[in-house]
Prior knowledge:
This protein is α+β, with helices and mostly antiparallel strands.
Amino acid sequence: xxxxxxxxxxxxxxxxxxxxxxxxxxxxxxxxxxxxxxxxxxxxxxxxxxxxxxxxxxxxxxxxxxxxxxxxxxxxxxxxxxxxxxxxxxxxxxxxxxxxxxxxxxxxxxxxxxxxxxxxxxxxxxxxxxxxxxxxxxxxxxxxxxxxxxxxxxxxxxxxxxxxxxxxxxxxxxxxxxxxxxxxxxxxxxxxxxxxxxxxxxxxxxxxxxxxxxxxxxxxxxxxxxxxxxxxxxxxxxxxxxxxxxxxxxxxxxxxxxxxxxxxxxxxxxxxxxxxxxxxxxxxxxxxxxxxxxxxxxxxxxxxxxxxxxxxxxxxxxxxxxxxxxxxxxxxxxxxxxxxxxxxxxxxxxxxxxx
Length: 355
């Protein structure tokens, strides 16, 4: 796994490896495998010529630092801050910020991520949750060590690309604080019931010997649009993925499926899940079966729109029952559900203005 993608995986795993209930980092594993992180938003009105350095902007009537891209509640995001985030995302996806075309799809993805991060930071601050500099430094040191670098070498990667380290620090802070926030706010909802555990055990017994597929997806639905209008948007998503953007990040920003907040991660599906009556049509299974492990399907047309999948893993169900693994998996599902629910609540309660 590359240095750049490991940053994305690490930031997510910070949420899943906090003190308290133990959550299985299934989505973090999916990020690593997919790269061989909600409702679709309109692209912000940002002109390429606005995303310039402060030096290039001298002499213009309106200083760069005073231009606002969007406002989340009472928190404005200025062009320079947005520009720094664009370069950060390009860096961690393995692209050269100075040479890569900055597309509307990229802007949409970054805007959504920044809005979520601002909402998370405000909610955790209001709840009195603090992440100290020492915790953030320790996280960065672990990142550097995990990539076979010293801290100095690690920071040099950002310096050479003219990407401020504060961007990474802010993301780490937001993820760590958000994990603690969800665990505290929804602590009573984290533990699965005995009935849920028993049902999962029974499901595993029934599925013994059958083929299972571990999948992630990006879905787009018509919702009043025609398929001819929808398909170009799906093609844009495919281009982003082909350019090296991590699948979980793209799924979080563009997918309209229920798994969007988990970066498109669906978990293990059985052959029985693909039926005319279910969420996954039989024609999807036919395509998935022909897809190599860690490969991506082309966009698949369905009655409701288009879907594409990544096959993370394929196996025969052994029927082995591990109660600890089952409980952790159910805890992870509850954590993700609570996180999605809380973020949706914050989005609904906050005024977001695009300039």
